[in-house]
Amino acid sequence: MFLQFHGLKSYSNAVLPNRGQDGFAKRAPMGDAERQRISSQCLKAALRDANQPLYVHVNGEDVSDTMTDLASSLASGMAIRSRYVFPVAVYPKLVMAFEGNEILAGEYAKEFAALFGKDKSGGEGKADKKPNDAKPVDRGFVEQPLVIGEVEAEAIIKAIVTIHQGGIAPKDMREIFEKAAARKKAGQAVIEAIENISALKAHCGLDGALFGRMITGSVLSRVDACVHVAHALTVHPIKSVGDYFSVQDNRQLQFDEDATGGSHNNSVELTTGLFYQYSVGDLRQMVTNFAGYSAEQIGQVIGWLVRAAYRVECAAKLGSTAPFGNMPFFAVELGKRQPRTLMDAFEMSMKNADSKVAAERLLAYRELRVLLDGATELLRIDDPAVLERARAQNRAAIEVLAELVVVKALPALQALVGATREEVA
User: What is Dmax (Cα atoms) for the chain?
Assistant: First the structure.
């Protein structure tokens, strides 16, 4: 089963939610016009942001509802997403495990980090490449960011300690990871430590399990994303204006009587727009990535995704533009059919950012796709039953909708979890 999230996000203030390296709003051609774009990377980063002011009403109280809060409630932890995973999360604990021996800890951290890259001549990986002196290369710095769950990091530390106790030198670790014969010689304890790391696919951190990770080395498994996030595009041509600004200097006149009172000036592009946002949740892949979790626990993840897809903001230029938009339309589709975006409803761009007309066009196009592709169930935030329950419970309609989506998805989740356990048995 797939969940498809459809939203119309309105930014009626002059904002710049996502910009490119050139400082201008990101763009993409679509249909008859160039549109403004908010990148999927930007949207996913906003979903991961623990500082988002997200709350949910539980037992009469508002409680924090960020991805980090969800990870804590599921005891899954978050992923560490950095080139400095080993210097920050592995090396310090290795120093403690090796009774303060920083050189030995650094050698093991460096060689283990190299396993995440392809084997180089002489068995040396990317971690041996000498970056600037400021980069802690001798503690496992790598050139490309790694996505490693907190639980996986702990397993890596335990494995390194076991490998050291087994008399295996840092430079020989690649061989035992890549060659079965070398592992047999290393002993059962080392074999179990390596297998423990390989078995931790469900512990790559909540964000790693949701958005996946690409691994090129021989240590951890690749994780396919179970949540797919599209770039958001405006339903109309990009609407932008150049904004000239100056920075006030309230002490400048004290030293320069000819000064104008500003010490810096520049210009920036600001925009307004109505965006179509689309994302997909693959329940089968979700069960795979959250192996060992119950259907109800995975249901918690789905409920959070519904609430977050509606509420999360890309808060670029927060202080100067207050980029807090709103969603005049939001709906979730459930069904077994192949997912498909509804952006083609706006192939011929709208002249104005009219959210009511945009929603009507979106729903009309969906009716056509259902006729062509097969039926799905649509749950809307503005459904009268949803709104009535929200009023009766004094709760936000999005929270009621999220619960309804979970109820609808739970039978499919239970069947998938049950089938997975039978396969393992």
Answer: 83
For residue 355, the tally of other CB atoms under 10 A from its CB is 18
pLDDT tier, 120 (very low <50, low <70, confident <90, very high otherwise): low
Structure tokens at 239: 């609407």
**Residue 53 Cα distances to 49, 57, 63, 70, 315, angstroms:** 10, 13, 10, 14, 11
Q: Residue ranges of the alpha helices (H) in 220-325?
A: 283-289, 295-311, 318-321
- Give the CA radius of gyration of the chain: 25
65 touches 56 (CB < 8 A): yes
Cα 411 to Cα 289, 296, 337, distances in angstroms? 18, 10, 17
Within 8 A by CB and 6+ apart from 408, the residues are 334, 377, 379
Q: What sign results for the dihedral spanned by CA atoms 166, 171, 176, 179?
A: negative
6-22 per-position pLDDT tens digit: 999 999 989 999 999 88
Question: Is there a contact between 349 and 31 (Cβ–Cβ < 8 Å)?
Answer: yes
What's the whole-number mean pLDDT along residues 315-335?
A: 91
- The DSSP H or E segment spanning 239 is strand 239-248
Cα angle 86, 90, 93; round to 5: 150
Among 207, 198, 197, CA closest to 78? 207
CA–chain centroid gap for 52, Å, is 13
Per residue in 259-308, pLDDT (tens digit) is 666 666 677 899 999 999 999 999 999 999 998 899 999 999 999 999 99
Q: CA-CA distance, 282 to 61, in Å (whole number)?
A: 31
State yes or no: pLDDT of 385 exceeds 90: yes
Residue 310 falls in which region: left (phi positive, over 0), alpha (psi -120 to 50) or beta: alpha
